[in-house]
Give the backbone structure.
Amino acid sequence: MTKRKTYHVEIAGIERELPLFEVAEGVTIAIFNMLGDTRVVKAASAALAEKLEATPADVIVTAEAKSIPLAYELSALMGLPYVVLRKTYKSYMGECVVATTRSITTGSEQTLHLDEKDKLLVEGNYVVLVDDVVSTGSTLAAMKAVVNKAHGKVSAVAAVFTEGDKDWSEVVALGNLPVFLD
């Protein structure tokens, strides 16, 4: 088996090698997967919490994905509740607030659902949106749409990484990942 090429990163003082994957013809990205990496989750959360210290915040919101442990740890550090926007509807969720996006990692359309009970945490409150990597901004746009429909106010967007050379100045991030074009 051939050893996969990697991209070296530092996340809040912790070094990792991220595997490189071709996600479209001629487009390769470094895949950051923090699931199961408790050390990175804790370090990244602490660094982001420090950067968000002066930001008005009542609730942390993330999409159902690899960013859930980050949202949990940030909520614990900041003393805030967190909400997960679900990708599939379940009957116990009641009347949901919904938005649709196209994911770069799956290449398909995805719907984000804000549970009826969680809408109360968002409505009229300051929301910090959290993601592991902001790459195209499509998931971020869907999260913002859900928060706006629920009458919340996005006060910040936080991520471990942004990706590519788009202007990500609105995102509080710990680093930027390049996109490799062949």
Notes: The mean pLDDT is 93. The radius of gyration is 16 Å.
